[in-house]
UniProtKB/TrEMBL annotation:
Positions annotated to bind ATP 1: 40-47
CDD domains: ABCF_EF-3 (cd03221)
Listed GO CC annotations: cytoplasm
Gene3D superfamilies (UniProt xref): P-loop containing nucleotide triphosphate hydrolases (3.40.50.300), Valyl-tRNA synthetase, C-terminal domain (1.10.287.380)
Reactions listed under catalytic activity: ATP + H2O = ADP + phosphate + H(+)
Transmembrane segments: none
Function according to Swiss-Prot or TrEMBL: Probably plays a role in ribosome assembly or function. May be involved in resolution of branched DNA intermediates that result from template switching in postreplication gaps. Binds DNA and has ATPase activity.
GO biological process: DNA repair
Protein name per Swiss-Prot or TrEMBL: ATP-binding protein Uup
Compartmental location: Cytoplasm
Listed SUPFAM superfamilies: P-loop containing nucleoside triphosphate hydrolases
Length: 608
């Protein structure tokens, strides 16, 4: 099937920034019905490319084509409200000039997104501002929508509603987003901006990492044949993907075990409490809330119930996510659970010797004149204390994707993503056994998000996480507390996907017409059973087999790292390369089979 005719396109476009090329001679086209995502490392030029397509930046070379009469709508990361006294003033600018007297269209889209048109845009919260910017993008019925981080600051019901709107949109879409679940559902084509060029594949975002690995492997083979080394950055990126995949499998196994343990405690009630009483004397208990409730008086003279009769027990090592629409009371519940706010009813008991670290939406500021070294070693020297051990600061910053040559670079020279990584490096250098994260994924680029998942995946303390990022929750948490906006808070084992399966069927809790799927039958109602003997035997054998394959792959990668191997013994190089690819494919198949059997086992045993 031929691709759709382009409505807008770049041909041989180049843009330079600070005297160096950001990208050169790139070709990109978006046509009707396209659902493409634009991915790439932080600072690679994704937002700049999108602004060129939107006509906001002129390229230094090449041509920008747009079909005559076509409507292109652009959603920026940070909307500019200059000259707009009200939200309605801002949104109406999304209409073509000859249609701006059709105020009913503005009112309709604002009503759907629950933003008052008479509000001063400068007083909007992050979520309200994002809804307002989306309203301006949607109101003009565009042919092409260019959306830069559309889910930032949105709550889950609004994200699901937006997904439904975009799935039914008949025009062309180009998306930049760090929200993997959002991209997995929407993107059917992937554009990868990498080292100044754009690669394209007709595969969706769900296959991006596999495609990326194929590209790196192909480059490595070509580099060996030409008897030259791959650039250090590319080598690091390729090795990082391989290492992350291996680490992630170990974390998946550990997370499944932790979720099973938490599911037993949620189902077991009082019996589980007695079973851990002795261990709690040694500090295993972190938080115990019993029948807590909280409400606030309203301006109309009534009373709004935020939380009513909620109980939970959080033990050392638990990772608990809090979800719900904006205004449902997540922050209020979090403050009660951590002792920052007294409940109106009930009690909260905190464990002993808690050292708490906070990562909040405000992101504690950095002095722009300080260097990376000074931020991490404020009292001088070159040592950073991490988990009670002294580490050289140069080695520590490599864990957070910095080059050691950046050690004495000032903060003001860092990109936004690099500043976020530096904040993470400082945060995780502080001793803690409980971490509270309030919307940590907002404004993070994909690399920093990967890094945050890696660091939190290895964290041995207790996590309390407020997030609207479904994939992030699925990868990290052992339990989920869902606040539905009506005062009820319910605890479920597992992440967001597990919550969707277990929650009772009900209407969406916000007015935005979220096109949510009907809830599945709760796992507890499923018939219990077990794997066949053959499947159980295979499941038991797979972890050892995967460890063996990983060890074999490591040996082969060590052999391939010899830069003289190809010149010295081309036949051996080819044989080693073929063995490496075969083992990697075998490991991938084993990992997928393990996940399939583990999911089947949990379903049969009613563990979720």
């Amino acid at each position: 099937m031929a691709p759709p005719a382009p409505i807008t396109a770049l041909q041989g476009v180049s843009v330079t920034f600070g005297g160096r090329p950001l990208f050169e001679s790139i070709d990109v086209s978006i046509g009707r019905g396209d659902r493409a995502c634009l991915v790439g490392r932080n600072g690679s030029g994704k937002s700049t490319l999108m602004k060129v397509l939107a006509g906001l930046i002129l390229p230094d070379g090449g041509t920008v084509f747009t079909q005559p009469g076509a409507r292109i709508a652009y959603l920026p990361q940070e909307p500019d409200y200059s000259g707009c006294a009200t939200v309605q003033d801002y949104v109406v600018q999304g209409l073509p000039a000859d249609e701006r007297d059709e105020a009913h269209r503005v009112d309709a889209v604002l009503d759907r997104l629950q933003v008052a048109g008479d509000r001063d845009p400068l007083t909007l919260s992050g979520g309200e501002s994002r809804r307002t910017a989306l309203a301006r993008t949607l109101v003009g019925n565009p042919d092409i929508m260019l959306l830069d981080e559309p889910t930032n600051h949105l709550d889950l019901p609004t994200i699901e509603w937006l997904e439904g709107e975009l799935l039914s949109f008949r025009g062309g879409l180009l998306l930049i987003s760090h929200d993997r679940a959002f991209l997995n559902r929407l993107a059917k084509r992937t554009l990868w901006l990498d080292r100044g060029t754009v690669r394209a594949t007709e595969r969706g975002f769900s296959e991006f990492e596999a495609w990326q690995a194929e590209v790196f492997e192909s480059e490595e083979a070509a580099a060996h044949k030409l008897d030259r080394k791959i650039e250090a950055e590319t080598k690091w990126m390729r090795e990082g993907i391989s290492a992350r995949r291996t680490r992630n499998m170990g974390r998946v196994r550990n997370l499944q075990a932790l979720r099973g343990d938490r599911a037993e405690r949620i189902r077991g009630g009082q019996q589980a409490k007695l079973a851990v009483a002795e261990a709690e004397r040694g500090g295993r208990l972190v938080i115990e809330a019993t029948n807590i409730a909280k409400g606030f008086d309203t301006a109309e003279g009534g009373r709004k119930t935020i939380v009513q009769s909620f109980s939970t027990r959080i033990l050392r090592g638990d990772r608990v996510g809090l979800i719900g629409p904006n205004g449902a009371g997540k922050s209020t519940l979090l403050k009660m659970l951590t002792g920052q706010l007294e409940p109106d009813e009930g009690t909260v008991k905190l464990g002993t010797n808690l050292d708490t670290a906070y990562f909040d939406q405000r992101r504690e500021g950095l002095d722009p004149e300080d260097t990376i070294r000074k931020v991490l070693c404020p009292f001088g020297g070159d040592a950073v204390m991490v988990n009670g051990q002294s580490r050289h600061v140069a080695g520590y910053i490599k864990d957070f994707l910095f080059d050691t040559r950046q050690l004495d670079s000032p903060v003001k020279a860092l990109s936004g993503g690099e500043r976020n990584r530096l904040l993470l490096a400082r945060l995780f250098a502080k001793p803690s056994n409980m971490m509270i994260l309030d919307e940590p994924t907002n404004d993070l680029d994909m690399d920093t998000l990967d890094l945050l998942e890696d660091v939190l995946g290895d964290y041995q303390g207790t996590l309390l996480l407020v997030s609207h990022d479904r994939d992030f929750l699925d990868r990290l948490v052992t339990g989920t507390i869902a606040m539905e906006g009506d005062g009820t808070a319910t605890e479920y084992a597992g992440g967001y996907s597990d919550y969707l399966v277990q929650r009772p069927a009900k209407e969406p809790s916000v007015a935005a017409p979220a096109k949510a799927k009907p809830a599945a039958v709760p796992a507890a109602a499923k018939p219990r059973g077990k794997l066949t003997y053959k499947d159980q035997r295979e499941l038991d054998d797979l972890p050892g087999r995967m460890d063996k394959l990983s060890a074999e792959i490591a040996k082969l990668e060590t052999a391939m790292a010899d830069p003289d191997l190809f010149t010295r013994d081309p036949a051996k190089f080819q044989k080693t390369s073929d063995q490496l690819h075969a083992k990697q494919a075998e490991l991938g198949t084993a990992e997928e089979r393990w996940l399939e059997l583990e999911a089947l086992r949990e379903e049969l045993e009613g563990g979720r």
